[in-house]
Amino acid sequence: MARRTLSDQAGAGKVPLNTNSEQMKKLILTAVIAVFAFTASYAQDSTRTRLHKAKGTAEQRAKNATAMLTEKLALTAEQQKKVYDIELERVKTFEGMRRQTGQSATMEARKAAMKASRDKMNSVLSQEQQTKFDSLRTAQRRQIRPKSESDKARKKHKGVETVTPPAPR
After folding, report:
1. What are phi and psi of 100, to 5 degrees?
2. pLDDT by residue (tens digit) across 113-132?
3. Region (Disordered) spans which residues (predicted)?
4. Separation between Cα atoms, residue 124 and residue 121, nearest integer Å
5. Quick check: 113 and 93 in contact, CB under 8 A?
6. Residue 36's pLDDT is what?
7. Which residues contact 27 (CB under 8 A, 6 or more apart)?
8. pLDDT band, very low/low/confident/very high, at 137 (cuts 50, 70, 90)
């Protein structure tokens, strides 16, 4: 089957006419390119998750954490200063651990640093504030890494049985 041209109809130069199949090919190709472009731009969007947010300096992070705790726990001015110092020390400690070992420090060193930070924080907070602080930490842990059935099954398979506390109401 020969391709029709304008010369067949009008007698001028030989310019091919677009057939429906050629138009469909162009349309599909355009759609595929648009999907790839959208996917590539979405994949580079670093604001989608908490893990990819801009972290800022240690001072900014400590200030943000103090502001959040002040709002949630109703800290006094004196407590705010102490909490800021504790948070700043915690952030700098973990940054140092990250630099030292590349990605993260050993689990034991991180746990020891977290326990020290938690103990200092508990010495500053009242009993009521400590309770709220612990519930905040529990909620944040669940938000960061929710337990799935496969996690429970894997731990149980390794011989470690996990008991999940009931969700707060």
Report:
1. -65, -45
2. 899 999 999 999 999 999 99
3. 125-169
4. 5
5. yes
6. 83
7. none
8. confident
Please check the confidence at residue 49 and state whether its pLDDT lies above 60: no
Supply the pTM of this predicted model: 0.53
What single-letter amino acid sits at 150? S
- AA identity, residue 139: A
d(CA 6, CA 4): 7
